[in-house]
Design goal:
five-stranded mixed sheet; elongated; Pdz3 Domain; 5 domains; six-stranded antiparallel sheet; about 10% strand; about 725 residues; 17 strands; alpha+beta
């Protein structure tokens, strides 16, 4: 089955349209056959006395003598009895009676095809009266009884439910489900014609319809057996299924050739055997799924609906017929009960996601409903209101566009929201990402998954890069995030549903959102650490230098001025000033005065050489970096070098400011090495500005810095 299905390679829409087309053609054929027969306008049924009773008169032009309650004694030269109007000839015990019934049908059919028919009936006085009735060439559709339309509906429902699932899922169970639906359609549509006939059909047509009903019924049963051998648990291989079909179809051929022990056994014996096998398979599936809660939960709807639908038909139709007892339920009504099977399947699909139909089901259903609505409105406008065809189609199209399409979009949006990430979940994910404790973060993440999908259990799993379904949707793997391990969720919604691809997509969105939130948190923390480091460097290099300057100043007024400058620097440090438009020469003039003042306080000489454009503009960030480097270098010289001279040389070249700072002191000692905070800070400041700084100790200390005039982006 699966290999044939794979060879077809039909898209879902084509599959569903094919199933729909098969049903529509078959239903139209059944309707044509039912309405193409000659029609007397009489509603007949078997009486308790073995005669035929006139139940109703559907034509106004019939002779006055014919009225409800009359006994119809003969049609033409054929004397009628109850067997002639029986609904289902398969209930006859012997092949002899069946062949006699078919012969009488042939004779009655030939009589009804005459221009005029002699109808003999018994009135209240039991005397036989005769009237002449001219049969209509065809039977109007409105005269067809409810049972005809019921069987048409049952056949259509079976075919469309099976075809719908087959269109959306390519596996063995869905193929067998589709076969059962088409078997039910063949059985019900065939029976709808001959079981609701007025009196007789052509013998060959009756035989073919009766055979279609019998074959379809057995295909329905064999397909259900094959389905239960494959689903929910696979308990039978291909050879077992092949054996079932071989034996079952062999019994069908034997019955059609009238080789069975009796007519009733041949008709209903296979059906009873199939029911017993179905009963046994449901029990076996129940045992096999004892450790699979999802399969057992699904079996509650899936298996029991099959049992209920088939058992009602078997015990109301098949068993009485085999025992020689008149069935108390009409076959058409029994077909209606069989529809319970497909109702149960539909409920199971909706509740347990047995076949993972996904968004395709909504799309296909909405397209079909839209098309059917358009056709129905068009027909109503043409035949009901008598509007011309072109305006009628335009009005129908307008109505569908204005009424149905907005409703479809609304439902589609609701479905999309349901399958997307809930905004509340976004807040939960952000809250989890901001949780500093790793253990607590993992507990919150686990709680989020539990509340979103309500699995039966959540276990740790091997790392995976994406969310994906396992075991046909029974499990779902959740990838790891920063700080949360990979997990495996078992049985969605307490075991009532399978995980869908939309669930995996939702989890993947949550994981990506978690990763993004964690990355944002890490970036924020990194930025905060960098800001704390910057402030620490500034406090060390600038504020420290200013405070030392204040300490060594002997002029009280000058101390106040330095303190004021220090407060200004402190505000700049806190605000991380990023202003532009500063003149480099002015910045350096202030810095030269400040440095000279600091060095003079400790009896050191300053040499300051510059080769710069007097109008060169720089931003506050470069000025701040330059100021910090020179201040820190001066502070180190004052504290450690024991120098007499301190020199600063600057020039602009190739868009960069080159700075050379030197002293004639003892150089960089071992205890003030490359790991000293001040020296590290100077290098970090230069690198942070996109430049570089090196320090050497050769006849004193030499600091070389290269700073771009254009401040790079942070």
């Amino acid at each position: 089955m699966s290999s044939l299905d794979a060879q077809l390679q039909l898209p879902p829409m084509a599959r569903l349209l094919a199933a729909l087309a098969i049903f529509v053609v078959s239903a139209l054929a059944a309707l044509w056959l039912a309405t193409a027969q000659p029609w007397l306008g009489l509603v007949l049924q078997a009486g308790d006395d073995g005669l035929v009773v006139l139940v109703d008169v559907q034509r106004e032009d019939l002779p006055n003598g014919l009225r409800p309650g009359s006994r119809i004694a003969r049609i033409g030269a054929v004397n009628l009895h109850a067997m002639d109007v029986m609904e289902e000839p398969d209930t006859l015990n012997s092949y002899a009676l069946l062949n006699e019934f078919r012969a009488r049908q042939a004779e009655l059919s030939a009589t009804l095809n005459q221009p005029q028919v002699l109808v003999g009936f018994a009135g209240d006085n039991q005397s036989i009266q005769t009237v002449v009735v001219a049969p209509y060439a065809g039977r109007p559709a409105w005269s067809l009884p409810f049972e005809f339309w019921l069987q048409l509906f049952v056949g259509g429902a079976g075919a469309l439910v099976g075809g719908w699932i087959w269109a959306l899922k390519r596996d063995r169970p869905s193929v067998f489900l589709a076969i059962s639906g088409f078997g039910l359609m063949a059985s019900a549509l065939s029976a709808s014609v001959y079981s609701t006939r007025e009196l007789a059909l052509d013998a060959e047509l009756f035989r073919m319809l009766n055979a279609g009903n019998f074959v379809g019924t057995n295909i329905f049963g064999l397909a259900l057996i094959s389905l239960l051998l494959s689903y929910p648990k696979r308990i039978g291989g291909s050879l077992v299924i092949l054996a079932v079909w071989t034996i079952g179809l062999g019994a069908v051929v034997a019955q059609l050739m009238q080789l069975m022990p009796s007519q009733s056994i041949g008709s209903y014996g296979p059906m009873l055997a199939q029911f017993c096998i179905i009963l046994a398979l449901v029990a076996i599936q129940f045992i096999a799924s004892r450790r699979a809660p999802l399969a057992r939960a699904a079996l509650g709807w899936f298996g029991l609906s099959i049992l209920l639908g088939t058992s009602v038909f078997v015990f109301t139709i098949a068993v009485p017929a085999m025992l020689g007892v008149e069935p108390q339920t009409r076959q058409a009504h029994a077909f209606g009960i069989i529809l319970i099977i497909y109702c149960g399947i539909a409920i199971a699909v909706a509740r347990y996601r047995l076949f993972d139909l996904g968004i395709w089901s909504f799309r296909l259903t909405s397209y079909l409903l839209g098309g059917m609505l358009l056709i129905a409105l068009d027909a109503v406008l043409i035949y009901g209101i008598a509007i011309e065809r072109i305006p009628a189609f335009g009005l129908a199209l307008l109505a569908v566009a204005m009424l149905y399409l907005p409703l479809r979009n609304f439902l589609g949006n609701m479905l999309a929201r349901r399958t997307g990430v809930d905004p509340l979940r976004v807040r939960e994910v952000v809250d989890i990402a901001l949780t500093p404790n790793v253990t607590l973060r993992q507990e919150k993440w686990r709680g989020l998954l539990d509340s979103a999908f309500a699995p039966l259990s959540i276990d740790l799993a091997a790392p995976t890069d994406r969310a994906r379904l396992v075991d046909g949707g029974q499990k779902m793997l959740v990838p790891f995030t920063k700080g949360t391990p990979a997990m495996c969720l078992h049985y969605a919604h307490g075991g009532r549903k399978l995980f869908l691809q939309t669930d995996a997509d939702r989890v993947q969105q949550l994981v990506e959102l978690m990763d993004h939130a964690l990355a944002s948190r890490d970036a924020q923390e990194h930025g905060a650490r960098q800001e704390r480091t910057r402030m620490a460097r500034d406090l060390h290099d600038n504020i420290g230098a200013q405070l030392l300057r204040t300490l060594h100043s002997r002029d009280p007024e000058r101390k106040d001025a330095i303190i004021s400058e220090t407060l200004t620097d402190l505000r700049d440090i806190i605000n991380n000033a990023q202003g532009t438009g500063l003149v480099l020469s002015e910045v350096l003039a202030d810095l030269r005065f400040e440095t000279d003042e600091r060095l003079a306080a400790v009896d050191m000489e300053l040499r300051w050489d510059m080769e710069i454009d007097e109008t060169q503009a720089v931003d506050a960030r470069l000025a701040h970096t330059l100021r910090s480097i020179i201040r820190e270098a001066a502070s180190n010289t004052i504290r450690h070098a024991r120098a007499r001279n301190f020199a600063v040389r600057m020039r602009v070249a190739a868009g960069e400011l080159h700075v050379h700072i030197s002293d004639d002191g003892v150089g960089v000692s071992d205890h003030v090495g490359s790991h000293d905070g001040g020296l590290v800070n100077m290098a970090a400041r230069a690198e942070g500005h996109g430049g570089a700084l090196t320090i050497s100790s050769d006849s004193g200390t030499h600091v070389f810095a290269r700073l771009p005039l254009e401040t790079p982006s942070p």
